[in-house]
Amino acid sequence: MNEETKKTTETLKVVKRQKSDRKYLINIIVILLITFTYTIFSLWNDLPAVIDVFSGATTTPDYRMILIIAALIAGRFLIEGLVLFIFARLYTTTYKFHRGVANGLVGQFYSDITPSSTGGQFAQVKTFANQGVPLSIGASIMVMHFILYQIVLVLFGGFSILLNLGDFARLAPITIFDVKFPIWVLSLVGFIINLITIVGLFLLSYSKKAHNFFINKGVDILAKMRIVKKPEERKAKLFVSTENFRVELRRLSSNFPASILILLLFLAKFIITYAITYFVALMLNPTLYETINFWETITKSSFLSMITGFIPIPGAAGFAEYFFEVIFGPVFLNDGAFTKAVQIVWRTSTFYANLLVGGLVTAFYRSSMEEIVDQSGNIQTFDQVKSLTFEERDRTSATLYQTSQLSIREIQRRLTPKKKTKNDEGDDH
Fold first, then answer.
1. Which of 41, 65, 228, 290 could make a disulfide contact with 283, Cβ separation 3.0–4.6 Å?
2. What is the DSSP letter of 292?
3. Is 226 helix (H, G, I), strand (E, B) or coil?
4. pTM
5. Tens digit of each residue's pLDDT (9 = 90 or more) over 336-364
6. Largest CA distance in the chain
7. What tens digit of pLDDT does each residue of 152-189 get?
8. What are phi and psi of 335, to 5 degrees?
9. How many Å is the Cα radius of gyration of the chain?
10. CB under 8 Å to 116, separation ≥6 — which residues?
């Protein structure tokens, strides 16, 4: 790289970093403002009663439970770090566990400050690169991470609905401009969006007819209806997404034991995350031990997650707090002050702890959300990175798949009893 190109590249990096830093600083300010505004509105008439809950005016809280809550928060961080560690160790034996934990925290931080949690993957690919993992491998890891996470998310949400249809249907409605909207409809919409995402990618990846119809004709139809702008660009992005999905799914099938382990780790992460509400409630009122059900809080937290997952506001600020109070109000016997007290601790534990710890780790790693600038000074987006590294990842995944198939055939050959020949029978006699 000549000196002029080097200067241009560095200038572009600085400019993009400044722009992205401003953008995400604005997002953080928006999150805090919305949360602060909602908290004032929510506690306007209930502040004394909420303070009484924390002070033990009615029931003595057991603040020793904070240790369990802290352990659950740490457990979430460690499980995510373990998942990234396992993925990375499939490619390199030098990757350390603590790097996976740090990478997970960076991804969580950027997911929390971007609309619909869309910023975490790119930040994690950048962090992998800072940790010595090539971009192509980092992109592979994050696509595989998305596939397995989405599978567990859909299965967990689906079973939560099927096994608790009565509770799901009885979720209290919300009133907007004198119109009542059933909460279960919003949860179902969130579940369907996640279901369509994973099933749609499977369908587009393995059905040429579906691939051609939805990506070509489907986008053209939406463009004519003026729902989609820049149809060719949209088609290119869909093509990259489906091809990446196909390649990384093949890679996952080549590492089946690791894939199963990661699925189980994601399941544990969901349970740990959703269990925080239960222990917060017991901390503030230990007498609820015989009243509330552990799995009921898990299920209700799953319903809440389905709603907040598709809200296009960073961190679902304001909405997460409101829907928590609506969904968990009946669980806590419609005690408004107690529900709001639990909500404050729950939100701090599940969101602001991520924001604080993730922000510190992000600052330490000097990670940023600016696009990658190549040696020619051209700016690359995350989609371009996936596209440019596609051939290499496709080639390596095909090799892994072929190797795994050979291994499976060899195992089957060794386990299959040999048919006796006439000579073998004579030897037996």
1. 65
2. S
3. coil
4. 0.79
5. 899 999 999 999 999 999 899 988 888 87
6. 95
7. 999 999 999 898 888 888 777 777 666 777 888 888 88
8. -85, 95
9. 25
10. 309, 310, 311, 312
